[in-house]
Design brief:
By secondary structure, the protein is α+β, with helices and mostly antiparallel strands. The chain contains eight helices and six strands; from the N terminus they run ααβββββααβαααα. α2 packs antiparallel against α5 (148-194) and α6 (201-213) packs antiparallel against α7. The chain is elongated and about 90 Å long. The chain starts with a helix and ends in a 10-residue tail after the last helix. 18% of the residues are buried.
Length: 264
């Protein structure tokens, strides 16, 4: 605890233009940085594993909503962004890259009295923490000492205020995943099947038909079927080994898809 406070005191002293206690006297103090604007991006906002513009816009909308609720800090941790409220007892909001949102009890936070975040403190702010009596005021237990009864309304408040933004993010992620599946993954899968030299041409055509027939009876499945049909029309039927009439007739009799295969 004391080591943490001393380290923060040295950092705060350096920010105010004073050299740390163990630094050479002639060492120049770094210039104080300007405070960020109120509308500056939350740290971690710029990190987005999705390239889809709707996803990026949805993430930014969620960022703005959480900032308005008091979540002024965010930190990228692996495949999540962890939002921390300015009040230490509010739960953390963890936004996963796949759109899953969870709430966690806030950990212990060490900061001077009347300062929300430790790195915002100046040297003079830390001085009260050096006395034994005042040290307790510099340790915020976070959510560790809050009962579930008191914590539940705080969680509900976040979901209530940011629910629309969370749903928008999930919808955008689902759409981006669908576009990636139809625009990149499925074409690559079809090309791999058709180009598999270990299979006969008849076996390749059979696998392509089986892939078309196995799509789900949903809008997403129908989109995939249409993408497969486009490949069959544009590649297989224009090749030296197109589907035979007998193959298509046999397949029509045994298909399980809700509609017939449509080839030009």
């Amino acid at each position: 605890m004391w080591m943490y406070l001393l380290l923060n005191l040295d950092r705060a002293r350096a920010e105010e233009g004073e050299a740390p206690a163990d630094a050479p006297a002639e060492e120049a103090a770094p210039a104080e940085e300007a405070a960020p604007a109120d509308d500056a991006p939350i740290p971690g906002d710029e990190i987005d594993v999705q390239s889809s513009l709707p996803v990026a816009e949805a993430r930014e909308a969620l960022n703005r909503s959480l900032r308005a609720e008091g979540y002024l800090r965010a930190e990228r941790r692996g495949d999540t962004v962890v939002y921390t409220h300015r009040l230490p007892y509010h739960p953390q909001v963890v936004v996963h890259d796949d759109g899953w949102i969870e709430m966690r009890r806030a950990p212990i936070r060490i900061r001077p009295p009347n300062v929300d975040y430790a790195d915002e403190a100046r040297f003079s702010d830390w001085l009260p923490c050096l006395t034994i009596i005042a040290t307790a005021r510099c340790i915020a237990p976070g959510g560790l000492l809050i009962s579930e009864r008191k914590l539940a309304p705080l969680r509900e408040e976040v979901y209530g205020e940011s629910g629309d933004e969370v749903r928008r993010l999930n919808d955008a992620l689902a759409q981006a995943a669908m576009e990636d599946r139809l625009g990149r993954q499925l074409p690559a899968q079809l090309a791999a099947i058709w180009g598999d030299a270990a299979l006969s041409e008849a076996a390749r055509r059979e696998r392509l038909l089986a892939l078309w027939d196995s799509r789900t009876d949903t809008p997403e499945g129908e989109a995939a079927r249409q993408a497969i049909e486009a490949f069959l029309d544009g590649v297989v039927q224009r090749s030296a080994a197109p589907f035979t009439a007998a193959e298509l007739a046999t397949f029509e009799q045994r298909r399980t898809a809700p509609r017939p295969l449509r080839l030009r």
